[in-house]
Design a protein that fits this description.
The longest helix is centred in the last third of the chain and has 19 residues. The chain is globular, with a radius of gyration of 20 Å. The protein folds into 2 domains: 206 residues, Aspartate/ornithine carbamoyltransferase (Rossmann fold, 3-Layer(aba) Sandwich); 158 residues, Aspartate/ornithine carbamoyltransferase (Rossmann fold, 3-Layer(aba) Sandwich), CATH 3.40.50. It is of the alpha/beta class and 370 residues long. The chain has 12 helices and 15 strands. Strand 4, helix 5 and strand 5 form a beta-alpha-beta unit. It has a 5-stranded parallel β-sheet with strand order 10-9-8-11-14. Strands 5-4-6-7 form a 4-stranded parallel β-sheet, with helices on both faces. It has a two-stranded antiparallel sheet with strand order 1-3. The structure holds phosphoric acid mono(formamide)ester. Phosphoric acid mono(formamide)ester binds next to helix 5.
Amino acid sequence: MVDESQQSEELKPNQVAQYIEPPADSDTLNPEPGPLFESNPIRLKVLRELKGKSVLSARQFTREQVIELAKLAAFLEKVEIASCHPLDGKMAITAFFEASTRTRISFESAVLRLDGKIISIPEGGSTGAKKGESLSDMAEMFNAYGDIVIMRHTETDSVDQIMRNLRVPLINAGNGSGEHPTQALADWYALLKWRPDLIDTQPTRGKSLNLGILGTPGSMRAVKSFLLMSLLFQANIGRVTVISEMADPFGADVIDDLKQAGINYEVTHDIQQHLAQLDVIYMNSIAFLGDSYRKLDSRYKLNRKSALKKEAVILHPLARADELDPDLDDTPHNLYFAQAHGAVFIRQALLISIFGRLDRLPSQIPSIES
Ligand code: CP
């Protein structure tokens, strides 16, 4: 058994952690992380609330938690902290029963860069699931083999199944058409870097966002989690416009959340009428329906010639199909690459908080206890 207090003495954070140089200029949007934390200390008390917690839904986060995680992520993006070994001695199991490029690899990168260890299951068919073993039985083994489970699954009720026996924290990395809460954290991390003023609950006149969603929150888990987390930033959002070919793109539960939040929203089929008013466009076209992937909202496509507002940014959880033309990649509308790249740092911030390893961070971290 590792004595954590003794270990944290031995691994005292490096006093001279190095600042990382920002990359060379490019047309593609790559917002600087510094403004998020440099004059705005990270509130450790808020992050300590996450210690030992599972992450199952975007609904469970408070606005303060999202903001403090984003500030810590910005610090981690800006400062080289490998020498602090924040996850030393911790073992994460990435159990992916459905394909993934970004989520699994960014979580594994996050853990390994923090000096934790990984047991990687990139394909559910390599487990007893192939022989009919239940997730609740597998959970019993995961309790013994790891300190946290990061799971993606095709079944929406997979989270309920594994939680029956799991006693270590679970991170839901996408459950069927359910949710993808850490994707929403990555989305909001990108938005807060782009517009640090969104932290302010009393935005200056004319600074609130018009948010457009090209997709169906009811069947696209990333869209749903993004929308649910956006409700926390209601004070900064003028209107949400959902552009969908479906008559009712929301599930009943999401409608309840929208009504409770009292946010202005509208649903339309007409992209041309609304595009030029949107500040942020969140798009996705691939949905998991029943037992297969389907392309929804396939008639809504964006490219360099689309009538976008000059300052508008596009978010996309990726993978993309033909709804997002690569000719937008090299334009200032492209926030989607920053969104994907920043996922490593927001996941690092989350893992450090869940494992209660905030005290391993370098002493120069701008933070306060309250
Ligand atoms: N954003 C996202 O969930 O991507 P992957 O499916 O590649 O993990």
